[in-house]
Each structure stands twice: as C-alpha cells, then as structure tokens.
Amino acid sequence: MDLGIRGRKAIICASSKGLGRGCAAALAEAGCDIVVNGRNAELLAGTAAELRQAYGVKVTEVPGDVSRPDIQAALLAACPEPDILVNNNGGPPFRDFRELDRAKILEGVTNNMVTPIELVQAVVDGMAARGFGRIVNITSLSVYTPIPRLDLSSGARAGLTSFLAGVARTVADRNVTINNLLPGKLDTDRLRGPHEAGTVEDPKAAAERKARISADVPAKRLGTPEEFGQICAFLCSVYAGYITGQNIPVDGGLYVSAF
User: Could you give the residue ranges of the DSSP H alpha helices within the chain?
Assistant: First the structure.
C-alpha cells in the first residue's frame, strides 16, 4: 500500500533499536527521508547503514540523548522542515516510588514529557504553515493500565498525553495530526531485562521467556517492532488525516475495554 508520503522528511527519536527503529524502517520503506537518533553512536551508524541499503532513502544520523537541547538543535538542523515527527525516549527503570528523589523525578519528567513537548513546539507551526504534519508519540500502555514500580514513566507519559490532547485540536484544520501509540508487551530489549549489550539470547531461553511474558496477552504472543512501526507509518500517511488526539494501544488485546 502506497501511504502517500514518499519524499516526505521525518525525524524519529531514539531510533537506533527497538520500537523507534521499527518506526524508522517503516517510514523509510514508505519512501521518507529520515533522521535517526540514538545514544550509542556505533549502534546508530549500523542502523542507518542498514536502512539506507534496504530502502534507498536518505538517512541522516544524529547521535546523542534527545533530551539534551543541543541534540534537539542538531536534529532540527539536520531536518529544518520535518513533515513527520516520531517522539520516543527511554523510560525510567522499574523502581519503587519510595526510591525516587527529586532529581530522578525531574529526569523522568524531562525525558518523557518535557522533551517531546519541546520538539512539538519546534515543528508544529511549520507543519501547519505547509499544510501537512504528522506527530506520533510513543508512550506506554501504562498510561491506561498503571504498572507498579513504573509509576514515574506512567505519570510523565500521562502528563504528555493530557498536554497534547488540547494542542492536537488546535492544528487539525491545517492537516496536522498528533496521536499516541501505547505499546504493551512488545519484544524489545526492555522486556529482556538486564543483559550485556550485543549478547544473543539462547533460543530455548528466549522461547520460554516470551511464552511466560505473553501468557496473559489474548494474542498469546509478544508484538514486534516491525508491526508497531507499520502502525506508526499508517498514522503518518495521507490516509490518517482524520485521526487526531487519539491513544491507540498496540498490545494484542491486553488492555480490556469495550470503549
């Protein structure tokens, strides 16, 4: 399916691996020139090279922590007039809320609420002036279903959701949409738990882990970054212009609600 965004320019934050990479790959496949970002420069370079080779689009690398103002400036210098922005960032680790001090709380809110808002502020008016814009925020199913020990992540992402819910309605008439994707249990490093970077899981251990984690998911499996990315790409397409201000769980039916 041609998504109608070939030649568009996209910034995808935290996209060297996992869900961000899945989104970058899907947008590159759709024909977008992309700017990718990640804290590990070597890993990012490998991702960029693979996407260039696979899809033949322009891929620009901006290594660094997207929460830093200088890295945000570098992203916008690499792509001054983006048509698409995918906000993504690593979440705080599992931790009892009693262990949080002010510094940790502010860091979590900065990474998962303030940073995406700053990037939306930087790009939304240009999108509106040009008559096309797609902003997708990768949040978490914990916005809907609180997860103990993930309270800081849940709170920061819920704050982002509420903040942008009103903003989305102010630019919808100029063909700019803002939506949120809420991943549930997807097969990323975060679900693998602590491990050495670059290590390969024993196939039997991986199968057992996936079966255990997905036991309560109606789909009886973990989602993949690839299918998550394709959903993101559709929300960025010309066909999704009438969808805005929405929270879309990508969770295999884990979140139980009729409405």
Answer: 18-29, 41-55, 69-78, 102-109, 115-130, 151-171, 189-192, 203-213, 225-235
